[in-house]
Amino acid sequence: MAAVASSSAPPPPPPPPPGEAPPPPSPPPPPSPPPPSPPPASVPPPPVPPSVSASLSVASSYPPLFRHEENLSSRAHAGSGGAYDVGAWMSYLEGIDDVLDSLRDGWRALSARSAGKGGGALGGMVEAEAGGRTLRISSVQAPGITHSPSTFRREVRAVIGLRMAAGERSVALLPGSYKLWRCHLAFCEGLLEDDVVDSDRDSGVDVDEGLRDECTSRRIPPYLLSSASRSAPRRRRCRAIEAAYERALARLHNMPAIWLSYASFVSVYDPSRDPSAVRKVYDRALMALPATQHDRVWEDYATWATGILPSYPSGGGGNKIEGLGRRGTHKVKHGFETPLVAQWRKRGWGRPRTSVEDGGDGRGRRSPWAPPCPPEATLRILRRHARYYDPSAREDLALLCASSEFGLDRPGEAASLLLQLLNGEGGAFVSPRGTTRHELWMRFADVCTAHPREARRAGVDFDGIVRAVLGARASDKGGDFEVYDKTSSAFGYDEEKEEGKRDAPPPRALDHNLGEMEGALWTRLAEFHVRGGDLESARGTYEEALDAIARVRDFSLVFDAYVKFEEGVIEALVELMGEGEEEVEGEAEGGAAGAEGGTSTREDDDDEDLDVLLGAGSSGAGGDSDPDGGVDAGGGGAAADVELALSRADHLMSRRPLLLNRVLLRQNPHNVGEWRKRSKLYLDLDEPDAAAKALEEGLKAVHPRKAVNGSPCELVLALAEVHEKERKDVDAARDVLERICAGGGYDFAESEDLARCHAARVELELRHEKWDDALELARRAVSGKVGKKGWKAARGLSRGLRLWNLLFDLEESLGTVQTAKDAYDRALELKVATPTHVANYASFLKGKRYFEEAFAAYERGIGLFPHPHPGAVALWRGYLTDFLERYGGSKTPRARELFERCLEDCPPEDSPEFYLLWGGYEEEHGLTKRALGVYERMCGAVPLKEKYDAYRLYVAKAAQYLGPTSTRPVYEAAISALEDGPASRMCLEYAKMETGLREVDRARTVLAYGAQMADPRREPDYWKSWHEFEVSHGNEETFREMLRVKRGVQAAFSTVNYNAAEMGGGAPKVEALSDEAALEMIAEQEGVEVDKRPLIGGFVGGTGGPAGGAGRKRTAGEADLGEVERRAARLREATAGASEPASAEVGGAGDEIDIDDIDEEEDGDRAPTPPPQTNTAKSIRGVSEKVIPAAVFGGLTATGKEDAA
């Protein structure tokens, strides 16, 4: 029969009596030695206990289970392990589980059938296959029915008992087997929620469906909601399972999975719901397991303590409470979740998310069935975790302490922990949650600001920490510059002190890199003082922040917070004043006797509030003080306090531009534009002294080589202007400019800046009518003897144009002719004069009637600025114009010599002006031949793009002086020299001239010659003009010749491509007569009938026309067109014998032509047609054919296809 335990194995402990809890678990014993080897086969098995006999009787009714029992027994007798084989026991237990699964399925089917149809019908039978048996269950007694619902339930319970007995036998024989214990404990836990075990019905209908539905919907153990009488068996079973866990841990205390399952079971199924029991299990696990496996325990331990489920890198699961989330590692390492996390996710336990954005409902309430853990226990657990296992968990502990969700209420501890994170490990803390250092600073500031008193009790000096980090001291009041908001203090600047301040090392209170959170820290510090009740310190903090920050963004944060603070103070004062007025009214109504007793306390409270809002001693500044030093809250004192607060707010708003300007200057003290803006702000406030001091300070702060947004000389000019115009102190302005110009008061990097200061000094004297002083200052400025020796900026004054221009103006207006000439001559000697100076010099001498000296000045200027200098054109223009104006035609050889010198090196693009001037001079004072020679030279010298206009001018002058016929050589030269486009237009003008002379043939020849240069796509006007010419002066033959030439030109230009810009975009179409219409009109005028057949397109060589003459222009496609002509001639000769003779009828005068001849000519242009009888294609093999492009033959191919069609 069945195998049983040997005598050496310890018997299983007896189950506890019903209704009693098992004894408390004892601490795990030391590791036991390995299980003994199986006894030899000769030892007889022990007697079978009665409980085992009952289970064996149940197993005998299921053949597979009975075979397992026989195998265990037979193998034991054969000496192969028998009852000590773990694999055999696992197979046996799995077989029982399969039978139970089948029976449970049958039970669920029976319950569903009974609930739907009732239990009295025969149709309610359920058939179940389990362990080789077929069970038929029905509540109706009928043949073939093996079980009623009640007997079937007893059958299921009997198999469950068999499974429990087999599990107990297996772990009793093999107590060190992890697999057997896991299988047995998992089955025991499953029984707590088994439907068959829980069922108390007799007919398949549950007696308490409401309770079962509630348990299912809330996903909690049913016995926790049931009554004591119904849940008592399950409570006893729960205690028995806990005892089984204790027995398993006695041998398997180094298995973390057993400990985690045990803790999960206690937290979920423990009837007492005692958190101490769960905590003790976890503590025992940490003591029993090695340190390398503590990570598995702590993850579950922290989940149970906080109620926050872990999340994973993939984003699944987990929740966040006020920004706090836990990163899970167990599933990442082992591929499955821990038992506690799995149970909680299944039942929907854990703290819900507090915001809809995080995926929660936003209600922030905790599940009523989440395991309760006292806040103090949670805090102690997390402290242990952060101190002894994972120091990076201090961040989570700080967030939990600061969060109001958990009820820990430890903001002081949170501030201390965050400070340790910021200041510990050399400031190199790396958050495992990805929290940046900036976020840690903000959290630390938020906690200290929200709970200032708790932070002080925890020993966190938030004020000292922030000031140390920001590098600010309470005693620093002046900032980096002296003149900011104080307008009446004396000006002073200690350069050594400022240099020492800039070179001092930063404070090392904390290693930090604030970045953009400087303004946020200042606002948090001020709010820290506000919440602590020290409003005067808060106001001082705001002022100190405005003196220290160097970013506009931080300034906006601090200033806005400062304004809100002052507004809050005003609102509080107004509210106090209103309450005081109500109190006074109540005293007047209630009588003087009853009011005296309660007024003093109210007045004392108001005085205290006013002292808080206005600072020490401020509440009595503007009101009537009582003998105790207080203020009548309802009288004039409160109103005065409100006025004082309003004045502070108004003063703060009026200071905003100056404060912002100070921030920008602190950010970059070399910004000249901001210094000037600061001076203007003071002038807007009607404070010229402060404006002057700000500019003086700017001169000391701005480095000449680092100045931006303007030149340093602008500060000097602005300072002199403030002294002169605003302060009405001309001597002070003169002293400033003299100190800068002569004394070297500022080391300018550029000479131009110093020159501007000298010019301002001269202009100052001119404005005050100091003419001689101004002229003397201008002469001194360009003398090169200004300033200290070796001053680089002063060395370049003598070559600056600004001062020379000023000196020239002053010399011409205030000096003599000789001093002016000396000034110009010195500038020419130093080579600092420009072409404009030379022109002004000559103009000045010309105005004084010194003509030859003026021409000598031009000669000196031309020597300094020869061609191709841009100023040479202006100098030659003025020179020639003045010379011709002075002498006219009296000195013609000298004038011609000047023109020759000018045009000798003159660039082509500048020469047309001088050629025209020379030509006009020759026409007026010289000979016509010389004038035409000048124009001819101009046509060859000007740039290519201006040749067309030059030739047109030459033609016009030739026609004017010599007649139209003399322009023919000019036209021919122009056509040969110009490009295709201008040449074609010149041909049109040439033809127009010949037409005017009644030379029609010469005009036609010119048009035919110019046709090769006029692409019909780009020059439609040319062909329109020729079209109109033939219609007016030609006949049908000349018109056909024009059409042939046009087709040839089209074929020649067919391979040329143009873009839209070259095509002219919207070139107008020629809407004149079409070719057919023009041909019909000519035939009608001459009385000739025209054949309506289409003409053959293509290129016609025109050998007999003018186009075929020698010397005509050839385009790039000339060789291809000649080849086409030769091929067309060979085709005509080849088809001449096969073609029919044509009859021609030609008039005596030659005005009429035979259309048949034209048809023959057109047929001759076509490609020869092979005879229809010859089968050449079939006789020739192995030769490929290729289509000839249409561009080769022009329009022949297309026309031939049309005729064939």
Distance between the termini: 110 Å
Helix content: 55-70%
Shape descriptor reads: elongated
Number of strands: 2
Give me the oligomer status: single chain
Structural class: mainly alpha
Describe the largest sheet.
Answer: 2 strands, antiparallel
The number of helical runs is 52
Strand order of the main beta sheet, please? Answer: 1-2
Whole-angstrom Rg = 58 Å
Can you give the mean pLDDT? 74
Beta-strand content bin: under 5%
Q: Low-confidence segments, ≥5 residues, pLDDT <50?
A: 1-48, 118-123, 200-207, 314-323, 353-371, 472-511, 592-602, 616-635, 1065-1072, 1093-1121, 1137-1183, 1187-1205
Q: How would you characterize the overall build of this protein?
A:
The N terminus and C terminus are likely disordered. The two termini are 110 Å apart. The chain has 1205 residues and is an all-alpha fold. Helix 28 (688-701) runs antiparallel to helix 29 and helix 40 runs antiparallel to helix 41 (928-941). It is elongated. Helix content is 60%, strand content 1%. The protein has a two-stranded antiparallel ribbon. The chain is built from 52 helices and two strands.
